[in-house]
């Protein structure tokens, strides 16, 4: 019979015991996070580098408009299936081994795209690279979340988002740097080949890292689980967390995780909440700005050089605001920050759409540069809310809300939904731009943003300052025993 801790009992325990917010974080857990988030750096670089490489590879490998779109979006399709596959195997082989395999795929994909002789091989190796990108996006946040103490989990998991936007910024800078240094049709090959180096560093770094204490405990290797906790926790926190992990796994009876467990209503509801959180982060249209910013800025009157420079500005703002997001996560609840990000992004989308619709295209026969820079301002404000609030908290929530035993499978499914949404939007955006124009496209994204805001208000839980086991008890209690209206708002209770 399934054991369910009553909400009142859980709240009492949450106040009486748990992670001490004043205890220090052991240095080793920071080393673990730094090594693992090289996967995020690769994720960012490989998704960002294509925006500049496409300017130079077209003639070299004879791209058509169709194959150009496939080269861009094939990575995203591969990422969707990479997230699903890595999530399926994470519980069986461990997070660490999955990341080691992904590092190998990153290196092979980077070399393959750099050496691709034609469009067909380029699309194939972009699909391969996408498997690694998607796998990293599903596995690295979970690995760090299970390694980190509860009071530092927010900052450490959001290092992944910082590394993603840093990778994108490095891609934009390297694109400009390689072109300025060498130029020519083969420049794009060096842009793509650079990603091999962090892939090798990730592989070597993870060779010396342990797996997570929760995975060791799930496999019955309790001595190894305790050893990892002793290296990553303050001494006074080891015993209670070890007890929480073992008791939670005993309640779950060590069953092999299977998708058919979604027949349990509370798990099905939780899975839909997770996939919803993942999808709304993409429905803001963030990656249309990251992938197509030069195209959009040229459409509102900027020349090539100005558009490329503005793309670097997007990367810089993304990095700076991710630092702000990490700081805010230590002070603001997850649900509150998600609402701030969603509302802010939606307002910026309305601003961009209004500027491009109401301001004139030309002034005295020349492109209206004020209009161009107002659109750029809207993009930078949008990225401030997206990268300073919505993106970091999305990855953090996904790494926290799923049960320990099913976390790999559920995380893979949620990130699969995220990448499919990203793939669909990125593939259709050029058609949307041609059909309704820039203003119409952004008004459509703003409408999706309003829906996302409603979803956050009704469905997103508060998980701050709770251990992963406490979150599991908390959500199971809410999703099992309360009415549907109350189920969607577990944050109504004061967090521990």
Give an account of the 3D structure.
The protein is mainly alpha-helical and 496 residues long. 78% of the residues lie in helices and 1% in strands. The chain has helices spanning 7-16, 27-36, 38-48, 50-60, 65-93, 95-115, 119-147, 153-157, 159-181, 187-193, 196-207, 213-218, 222-232, 235-251, 265-283, 286-299, 304-329, 334-358, 369-400, 407-459, 468-481, 484-487; strands spanning 362-363, 366-367. It is globular, with a radius of gyration of 23 Å.
Characteristics of this structure?
globular, mainly alpha, single chain, disordered N terminus, disordered C terminus, 496 residues, two-stranded antiparallel sheet, 2 strands
The proportion of strand residues reads under 5%
What is the helical fraction, as a range of percent? over 70%
Q: Looking across the biggest beta sheet, what order are the strands in? A: 1-2
End-to-end Cα distance: 28 Å
Give the low-pLDDT segments: 1-23, 483-496
Rg: 23 Å
Secondary-structure element string:
HHHHHHHHHHHHHHHHHHEEHHHH
Largest sheet, in brief, is: 2 strands, antiparallel
Mean of residue pLDDT values: 81
Summed up, the helix count is 22
Shape: globular
The total of beta strands comes to 2
What structural category arises from helix and sheet content?
mainly alpha
Offer a quick outline of the entry.
With 496 residues, this protein is mainly alpha-helical.
């Amino acid at each position: 019979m399934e054991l369910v801790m009553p909400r009142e009992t859980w709240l009492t325990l949450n106040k009486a015991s748990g992670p001490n917010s004043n205890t220090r974080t052991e240095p080793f857990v920071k080393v673990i996070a730094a090594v693992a988030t090289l996967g995020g750096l690769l994720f960012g670089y490989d998704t960002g580098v294509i925006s500049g490489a496409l300017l130079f590879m077209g003639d070299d490998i004879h791209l058509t408009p169709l194959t150009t779109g496939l080269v861009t979006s094939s990575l995203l399709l591969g990422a969707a299936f990479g997230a699903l596959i890595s999530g399926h195997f994470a519980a069986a082989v461990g997070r660490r081994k999955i990341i080691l395999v992904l590092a190998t795929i990153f290196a092979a994909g980077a070399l393959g795209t750099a050496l691709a002789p034609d469009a067909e091989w380029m699309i194939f190796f972009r699909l391969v690279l996408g498997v690694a990108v998607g796998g990293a996006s599903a596995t690295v946040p979970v690995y760090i979340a299970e390694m980190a103490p509860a009071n530092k989990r927010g900052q450490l998991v959001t290092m992944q988002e910082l590394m993603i936007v840093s990778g994108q910024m490095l891609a934009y800078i390297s694109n400009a740097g390689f072109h300025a240094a060498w130029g020519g049709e083969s420049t794009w090959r060096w842009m793509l080949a650079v990603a091999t180096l962090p892939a090798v560093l990730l592989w070597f770094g993870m060779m010396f890292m342990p797996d997570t204490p929760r995975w060791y405990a799930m496999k019955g290797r309790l001595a190894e689980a305790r050893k990892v906790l002793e290296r990553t926790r303050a001494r006074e926190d080891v015993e209670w967390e070890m007890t929480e992990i073992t008791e939670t796994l005993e309640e779950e009876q060590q069953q092999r995780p299977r998708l058919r467990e979604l027949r349990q209503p509370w798990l099905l509801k939780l899975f839909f909440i997770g996939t919803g959180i993942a999808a709304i982060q993409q429905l803001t249209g963030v990656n249309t700005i990251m992938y197509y910013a030069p195209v959009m800025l040229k459409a509102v009157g900027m020349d090539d050089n100005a558009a490329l420079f503005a793309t670097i500005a997007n990367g810089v703002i993304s990095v700076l605001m991710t630092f702000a997001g990490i700081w805010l996560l230590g002070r603001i609840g997850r649900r509150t920050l998600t609402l701030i990000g969603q509302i802010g992004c939606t307002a910026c989308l309305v601003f961009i759409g209004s500027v491009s619709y109401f301001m004139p295209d030309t002034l005295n026969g020349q492109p209206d540069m004020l209009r161009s820079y107002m659109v750029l301002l809207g993009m930078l404000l949008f990225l401030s809310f997206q990268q300073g609030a919505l993106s970091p908290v999305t990855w953090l929530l996904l790494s926290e809300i799923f049960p320990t035993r099913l976390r790999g499978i559920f995380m893979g499914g949620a990130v699969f939904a995220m990448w499919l949404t990203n793939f669909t939007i990125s593939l259709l955006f050029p058609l949307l731009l041609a059909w309704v124009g820039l203003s119409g496209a952004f008004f459509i994204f703003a409408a999706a943003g309003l829906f996302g805001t409603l979803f956050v208000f009704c469905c997103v839980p508060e998980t701050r300052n709770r251990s992963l086991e406490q979150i599991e008890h908390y959500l199971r209690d809410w999703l099992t025993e309360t009415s549907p209206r109350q189920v969607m708002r577990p944050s109504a209770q004061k967090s521990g």
